[in-house]
Structures are given as structure tokens and as C-alpha cells.
């Protein structure tokens, strides 16, 4: 029996690699005449890999391609006729493609609240401009804020510092920034700094603003940058918790405390630390106390309540700015946390910073941020530096025209107005009460100033 003949490249091309080739390939006759099939020889060629390959010799004659016709079971099939099995496959694919949009439409209509799916009606409603908006305002991206009526005084859903927008609209280009496409491409910013991914300009503007306001000491401190102060809060817990301890370090805070403290502390179920509740009821020597001052939610000025050689404290001073409270002293704690969200209102920039005395603690906090996010957005740092610089410019002596753009003055007026409205609403309702107003000597404003916290803590009244 004759050895099986190897398939040629022409045969593979003709069959598309989908069906076995026929036993014979019949090319068109030379010059349109004669029906004899030319002899076919395989010519070895060298591939890039160095091994032999085969290609079919071209037919002798000026006829059309070798693939013009085939002989199957002794019968000739006209050129160009598509096999029946290909027709079926093509029809099946076409029907599926045509039916897919109909199925998706039906699914979306019947499941309007399915996570991640928005019906056409919902999309039109979400994209429609709000009443009273036009021009650029109507085309502006969504703020993501819950919808409220025009006469709403209080939104209890979520805090969002957009009250500062009016101020920043008036500053013109003082806080504008253009970053070229080639800039901020490297991971590294200042390799000689403990916080090697922090932009030097951000470091400079943080120190400048604190010296201007007088709310925190910066000389002898390491400045660290984070993606919001929450990341730095986590970094502090990591840095202060001994890795070789038998039990996780207890994390406490005096009640009422910021609602996110317990959730953030236990979110990853770390073996290094765990939430232990109210500092007033804590018993033990090893702990990390979170001191929020002014406190969220009641606005009280606080100090640490625990004292132990093995205990540590982290001071969250997000609201220690002149628009919220009198600046009575220059804070000089071991670890102090701040954020642009509360200081300037730029919550969406997601930048916070820490002032840390101890170099080793600063190094460990930096390591946490490195492992967590491999640094912090340079674009956000540069924008935050520009914003902080604009705030300081407004209070520089001899600042000229820029001096009229004073953020803390604007913020205090806004907070006084909002607290007045809130107290009026509480008095009119009779359903809840607010803490009594307090005041103190503000070293920044050089006058007695009321305490107007950025958060409120209401007590419900028992109704008869």
C-alpha cells in the first residue's frame, strides 16, 4: 500500500484548516485547455527555526489558483460554492448576534435594580440637568451627593465639605495647576527623605501653613503624606503595634468617638491590633489611644485620658483649624494627623499628612504606605501644595490683592451662619438639643472666637 501523501500548504489554505483535504487537488488547466493535472513536487525550505518545511510547487501554466476547484469522491464541485456545514455555522452566529441586544434589553428592563446595571430610564434621569442649572453648570460632572431639596437645612446622610466651593471659585488662578504629560512619572520624589514618595513642595507648603496658623509645631518633625488621613491612621496603628506581642494591641478612644474608628481598625482583622472600645472603661497598660480634637462628633476639645509607659497616643487634629475652633495653642504631640478635606475642603484630592516626632515611627509608617499603595499620587500632592500655598498667601503680610482671599475668614463666617440655622431648627422642632456654645481666645485671629465644630452631636428629647 502506498504511503500516505503529506498535505501541502495549498491544501491547508483551501480547507481553512477545518476539514481533511481531498485526495487530489485539481488545478485549472493550462491556458484554459486540457484536463490533465500537472505533477506536484514538494520543495523543502528552511524556516526561521532552522528545520525543514514544505511548500507546494506552483502549477505550470497561466491558469487561476490551485484552490479554484477540488475533486471529492470523483465529482467536481463548482468554484465558490460554500459547504453546507459552513452555511449552518454562519446562520447560527448571525442569529445569536442579532438576539443578544434583545436579550440584554429585556434583562435590563426586568432587573432595574440589579447591582451594576442601570436601566435606560435611570440613565436618562441621572444624566438630566437639575432644575435651575444651565450652561457649564448643567454640563458639570455629577458631584455624587445625595439629592436634597432647595430648602433643606440639614443633610444627615454624609458630610461633604462643598461649602468651600464658593471661596475657591473667587480665587481665580491662585490655586490652578497644569501638570505636563512628562512630569510626575517616577515612583520617587525625594530619596533622601524618610517619606521618599513625598513631593518636596508639598512638605514645604505643609510646614508653611502650620507656621502661619500656629496650630501645630513642625520644627523637629517628619512630614509624611498619605491618601487621606485614614491611611495614615492605619499606618500609625501598624507602626506602634509590636510585631512580637502575644496579643494584638488594644485601640481605644473616648466615647463618643468617630464612627469609622472601630470599622477601620478591625477591617482587615489584623493580628497586630484590634478595637477595644471606650478609653474611659479600658483596663491595661498596652494600648493605642486615638485622641480626636476637636472631637468628631461632638466638637469637644480633648486630651488623652490614659497614661502608661507602654501606651501610645495618636492625635487626630483634622478639625483643628480657625474656621472651626479657636487656636489656643501650638500642638506638639508625638503623632498628629491632618487632611485637606477639612482644612481647605478638597476632599476629592484624597491627601492627608502626619507630623511625626520619632524617626523610626515615621519610617514604619512610610513602610505601611509603601506596602499599601506604593506611595501617594504625585498629581494630588502637587495640587494640594498649590492649594495650601494659596491659603498661606492670603495671610502673608504685604500679600497685596491676594490678601482678600482668606479661607479661614470665609470658613468662619460660613460656620457661624450654619450653626445659627442649626440652633434655630433645633429650637423650633423641640425634638432634639445641641451642645451649649463655647468660645476661647484664638491666637490666630487675636480675638475671642466661638467654637463652631464641623460636626454636630444632637440629643433626642423625650416627647410627651
UniProtKB/TrEMBL annotation:
SUPFAM superfamilies: PLP-dependent transferases
Gene3D superfamilies in the cross-refs: Aspartate Aminotransferase, domain 1 (3.90.1150.10), EGF-like, alliinase (2.10.25.30), Type I PLP-dependent aspartate aminotransferase-like (Major domain) (3.40.640.10)
Transmembrane segments: 84-104
Keywords: Membrane, Pyridoxal phosphate, Transmembrane, Transmembrane helix
Entry's Gene Ontology molecular function annotations: carbon-sulfur lyase activity; transaminase activity
Cofactor: pyridoxal 5'-phosphate
Signal sequence region: none
Region (Disordered): 1-76, 115-154
InterPro entries: Alliinase_C, Alliinase_N_sf, Ethylene_sulfur-biosynth, PyrdxlP-dep_Trfase, PyrdxlP-dep_Trfase_major, PyrdxlP-dep_Trfase_small
Highest taxon listed in the record's lineage: Eukaryota
Pfam families attached to this UniProt entry: Alliinase_C
Residue ranges constituting the Alliinase C-terminal domain according to the UniProt record: 154-454
Biological processes, Gene Ontology terms: amino acid metabolic process
Biased composition (Polar residues): 144-153
Family assignment from sequence similarity: Belongs to the alliinase family.
PANTHER family named among the record's database cross-references: BIFUNCTIONAL ASPARTATE AMINOTRANSFERASE AND GLUTAMATE/ASPARTATE-PREPHENATE AMINOTRANSFERASE-RELATED, TRYPTOPHAN AMINOTRANSFERASE-RELATED PROTEIN 2
Name recorded for this polypeptide: Alliinase C-terminal domain-containing protein
Organism: Aegilops tauschii subsp. strangulata
Amino acid at each position: 500500500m502506498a504511503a500516505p501523501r503529506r498535505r501541502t500548504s495549498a491544501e491547508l489554505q483551501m480547507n481553512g484548516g477545518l476539514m481533511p483535504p481531498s485526495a487530489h487537488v485539481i488545478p485549472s488547466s493550462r491556458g484554459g485547455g486540457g484536463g490533465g493535472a500537472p505533477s506536484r513536487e514538494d520543495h523543502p525550505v528552511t524556516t526561521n527555526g532552522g528545520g525543514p518545511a514544505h511548500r507546494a510547487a506552483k502549477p505550470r501554466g497561466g491558469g487561476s489558483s490551485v484552490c479554484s476547484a477540488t475533486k471529492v469522491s470523483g465529482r467536481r464541485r463548482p468554484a465558490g460554492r460554500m459547504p453546507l456545514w459552513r452555511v449552518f455555522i454562519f446562520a447560527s452566529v448571525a442569529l445569536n448576534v442579532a438576539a443578544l441586544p434583545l436579550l440584554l434589553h429585556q434583562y435590563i428592563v426586568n432587573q432595574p435594580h440589579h447591582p451594576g446595571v442601570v436601566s435606560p430610564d435611570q440613565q436618562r434621569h441621572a444624566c438630566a440637568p437639575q432644575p435651575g442649572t444651565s450652561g457649564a453648570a448643567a454640563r458639570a460632572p455629577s458631584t455624587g451627593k445625595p439629592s436634597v431639596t432647595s430648602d433643606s437645612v440639614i443633610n444627615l446622610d454624609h458630610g461633604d465639605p462643598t461649602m468651600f466651593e464658593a471661596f475657591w471659585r473667587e480665587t481665580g488662578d491662585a490655586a490652578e495647576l497644569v501638570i505636563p504629560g512628562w512630569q510626575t512619572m517616577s515612583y520617587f520624589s525625594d530619596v533622601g527623605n524618610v517619606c521618599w514618595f513625598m513631593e518636596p513642595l508639598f512638605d514645604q507648603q505643609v510646614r508653611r501653613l502650620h507656621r502661619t496658623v500656629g496650630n501645630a509645631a513642625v520644627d523637629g518633625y517628619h512630614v509624611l503624606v498619605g491618601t487621606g488621613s485614614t491611611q495614615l491612621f492605619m499606618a500609625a496603628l501598624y507602626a506602634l503595634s509590636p510585631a512580637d506581642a502575644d496579643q494584638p494591641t488594644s485601640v481605644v478612644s473616648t466615647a463618643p468617638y468617630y464612627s469609622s474608628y472601630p470599622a477601620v481598625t478591625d477591617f482587615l482583622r489584623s493580628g497586630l491590633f484590634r478595637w477595644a472600645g471606650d478609653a474611659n472603661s479600658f483596663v491595661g497598660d498596652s494600648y493605642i489611644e486615638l485622641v480626636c480634637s476637636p472631637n468628631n462628633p461632638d466638637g469637644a476639645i480633648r486630651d488623652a485620658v490614659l497614661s502608661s509607659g507602654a501606651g501610645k497616643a495618636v492625635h487626630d487634629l483634622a478639625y483643628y483649624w480657625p474656621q472651626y475652633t479657636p487656636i489656643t495653642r501650638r500642638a506638639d504631640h508625638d503623632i498628629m494627623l491632618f487632611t485637606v478635606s477639612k482644612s481647605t475642603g478638597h476632599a476629592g484630592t484624597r491627601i492627608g499628612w502626619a507630623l511625626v516626632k520619632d524617626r523610626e515611627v515615621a519610617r514604619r509608617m512610610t513602610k505601611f504606605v509603601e506596602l499599601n499603595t506604593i506611595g501617594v499620587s504625585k498629581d494630588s500632592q502637587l495640587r494640594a501644595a498649590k492649594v495650601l500655598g494659596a491659603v498661606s498667601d492670603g495671610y502673608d503680610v504685604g500679600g497685596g490683592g491676594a490678601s482678600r482671599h482668606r479661607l479661614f475668614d470665609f470658613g468662619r463666617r460660613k460656620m457661624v451662619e450654619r450653626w445659627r440655622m442649626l440652633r434655630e431648627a433645633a429650637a423650633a422642632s423641640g425634638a432634639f438639643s445641641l451642645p451649649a456654645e463655647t468660645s476661647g481666645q484664638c491666637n490666630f485671629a487675636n480675638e475671642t472666637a466661638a467654637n463652631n465644630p464641623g460636626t454636630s452631636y444632637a440629643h433626642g428629647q423625650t416627647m410627651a
